[in-house]
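Protein 1 of 2
SEQ + STRUCT:
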Amino acid sequence: MSNKLDFIDVFKDKKVKNDIITVRVDTELKESFTALCKKNNIPVATALYNFMYESIKRYKK
């Protein structure tokens, strides 16, 4: 079973037309997300919460 979440695109190596992309939550994503948080010294839980909050805010417009 794979969950899908909408994330705001902060991964600078990805070229996308929209600022919100749908991604599968899998090991590769988890590892790159964790690495990005570690690199920027941000707790993973805080970053995930902020992504979800921003995604929901955009859908409510």
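Protein 2 of 2
SEQ + STRUCT:
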Amino acid sequence: MNDQSARGMLLADQSFQAFRDLLFRGEVRAGQLVSISELMEKTGFPLAPVREAVKHAESTGLVRILPKRGVLIIEPTPDTVRSCFHLRCMLDQEGARILAARLAEAPMQALREEHAAVRDQALEGITSELQQWAMAVDWKLHRALAGSLDNPLAAQVYASNHDRITVLQQSRRLLPERIIPAMDEHLRIIDAVLAGREEDAMRAVRAHLAGTLRWWGIGLSEA
């Protein structure tokens, strides 16, 4: 690869990261149709790297390129939401089973303490800072479950799905009343793992999926 090609790849990577940051901050939202020129303006990158960034985003399911219309950000339809969370659940179940079989006490105990702290604070009152903390703690458990798979291919799938879910979540306001139930669902997963109960851990992951979809107003297997 010559220097010019290398610079082009670097710009494309930087452009994709800038685009991804826009999505994560909600500056470009799920279901929104945007033009390439808008993305150039928002990211500050020229045409070629922005086009490459959009192609990359399409390959990971973040967007669809609509010829002569623009770039459609992943839409929060019931099927899309269900598919993304179901995929996470499938990987999380196996991760929970592995951790329970290993009796992975040290990382799980630390996570348990953090979840309990979020829950205790939520009982006293919910602030925007607590909501952000709860979201971060929520993802800590999911990353721990996925990481236990020790599978680079699964890690790639999980990372792309994390990005899709993060963008989808930007389409809904954080609900304060969801924090305590979500922490309880996570604590049941953690407690089953700590007790070495593999089936209970997997069952708790599935129950968390059902709770998450209810928050979205979606059933597990709607037609």
